[in-house]
Amino acid sequence: TLHQIWVVEADRETRIRRVMLRNNLQRHDVEARIASQHDTPIDNRTHIITNNDREAILPQIHTLLNNILT
User: Fold this and answer.
1) How much is the pLDDT for 1?
2) 8 forms bridges with which residues in the sheet?
3) Most buried of the four, 5, 20, 41, 45, by CB within 10 Å?
4) What residues contact 3, with CB distance under 8 A and at least 6 apart?
5) Under DSSP, is residue 56 helix (H, G, I), strand (E, B) or coil?
6) With contact defined as beta carbons under 8 Å apart, do 45 and 9 qualify?
7) Cβ proximity of 19 and 33 under 8 Å
C-alpha cells in the first residue's frame, strides 16, 4: 500500500540552467527537450521537496522524516 508520495521539484529556469551546464547545450535545445516531454501533474503527492539552489534539500528531507517518525 502506498501511503505517501514525495515529489522533488525545481523551477523551470533552474532545470534549464542545470541541463545547459550538464550537457553543454544551448538554451533553445533544452527548451525544445522540455517542450517534447509530457509533464504530468502529480495530484496525489503528499510532500514536496524544493530543489532550486535556494533551499538545501537535506534539511527538508530531515524535517519530513522527523514529522513521519514522531
Assistant:
1) 67
2) 49
3) 20
4) 46
5) coil
6) no
7) yes
Residue 67, beta-bridge partner list:
none
Q: Looking at residue 28, what is its pLDDT? A: 98
Q: How many alpha carbons lie under 13 Å from residue 35 in its C-beta half-sphere?
A: 6
pLDDT at 27: 98
Q: Dihedral, CA atoms, 40, 44, 13, 62, nearest 10 degrees?
A: -140
The DSSP bridge partners found for residue 6 are 47
Q: Which three cell numbers stand for residue 12?
A: 523551470
Convert the pLDDT of each residue in 7-58 to its tens digit: 999 999 999 999 999 999 999 999 999 999 977 778 888 899 999 988 999 9
